[in-house]
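Wed. Picked up where I left off yesterday with Molybdopterin molybdenumtransferase. The coffee machine is broken again, so keeping this brief.
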Amino acid sequence: MDLVKVEEAIGMVIGHDLTKIVPGEFKGVAFKKGHIITESDIEELKNIGKNHIYAINLSNGLLHEDECALKIGQALVNKETGTYFDGPSEGKVNIKSNTKGLLKINLSSLDDINDIENIILSTLHCNTLVEKGDTVAGTKIIPLAIDEKYIKRIQEICINDKVIWVKPFEYQKVGIVITGTEVFQGRIKDKFEPVITNKLKQFPCEIIGTTFVPDDLHQITKAIEEFISKGVDIVITSGGMSVDADDVTPKAIKHCSTEVVSYGSPVLPGAMFMLAYSNHTSIIGLPACGMFNKATVFDLILPRIMAKDKITRKEINKLAHGGLCLKCEECKYPVCPFGK
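Structure written out below (tokens, as returned):
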């Protein structure tokens, strides 16, 4: 910052808050840090006793924090990102979702941007379910002004890759297969179907049917295959996922699949979870924990399937880090560490 006469400070940036004091009446900020001085400010500066100030000269290739934030926002947002930004305000812009969907973050590009001196970009976690209008990221520069070359580096990163975007959920048809001889025979009341349908309500999908079958390999296989033949996008099976002698659902899923991604997940609750594909149809095997816990591995995987992500075994394995539910007395998922 330079020490300059106020008359020579027009177009420069105030380097710190300037206080106005009227004895017995007022004491507060007259000019905020970051304010760009105009000719009309000169008399008021003198009125508060400021004939000289510390200011930043923007004529030397420096950009003001608001202009920097604006340029960063413009670099991060385009018609393909499903986002928009508001601001700048106090040197910051917020990136917001333009649709309901799954937030995607290019973590490598995010690291590259934050590695640029004096610039920060903060985001929500990748694969967070977001609503339209949700703030998904915020960005600003640290000082009041920086060299334009740093902003150009961000623009170059964003030209080559999307850094932040929202993948909209797609309309999908769902078939539900409830397994369990005790349920099929009416010995106990099924509790799985209402849990599944309630979780599906937040997505643009249609449940085309629910089939109840006993713990019989042939009948479970037939029920899954019938839904696949009807062109469903997702088949959700519940129950019969353990290693008990009567639990044959995993065998049925395997029989119907062209690819088994994983039988078992490093998530608690949800260890006996299964995910497979029959060509383009997702087949999900839900263990019994889904009936009794508000948040399970199903809640971590379902949004991705609804966005038509192709999930790999490696991605399921990565859920181990943060995959332990604390089973809090009052569950506040997803505002908690589970799945993060």
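Quick read: The mean pLDDT is 93.
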